[in-house]
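so my prof wants the structure for this chain in the tokens format not the other one, which i didnt know existed until like an hour ago. anyway here's the sequence
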Amino acid sequence: MGISTQILGYATYLLFAQKSPYTTLTDIASKLGPSETLTEMVAEAEPQKELKGVDLKKWKLAIREGDKAYSAFRLSEALQHFEFAHSQTPKNRIVLKKLFNAQVFYATHLYDTQQAGSEEYFQKAVQSAEALQRQDPTDPESEFFVAYSLGSLALFK
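here's what i got, hopefully its the right format
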């Protein structure tokens, strides 16, 4: 049994034991190794066929470094990391959501500071949001992402 399966199994156990979500996430985080994040563990829980041929070490590093850059508001750096991770696993919804968020915030930053490129990144965000919606048409978060990014893109029309 892989570590991802163990973590997900443990999370299910905690949920059925009626612990609060905060306690559950704290408990899960305590089970992770020092170099792994919850995001990496969940993202790795993808069907194994999608991860076939992927250098997991580089992929996890890209996610980790993208998260660090995003948290520090180094958005162009975060975009590079998330774009790499997405290129390795294009159907991974977690990575695609991270890429979408980085695209939207970077585009907004460019727009607010009156720099060139804002429209281009809003268009990329629309493409990412539509890809998420195609993967799961019943996901309301994906619908919100599409509406938000199209609304932002309307600033240029």
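also thought this was worth mentioning. Residues 6 and 85 are 23 Å apart (CA to CA).
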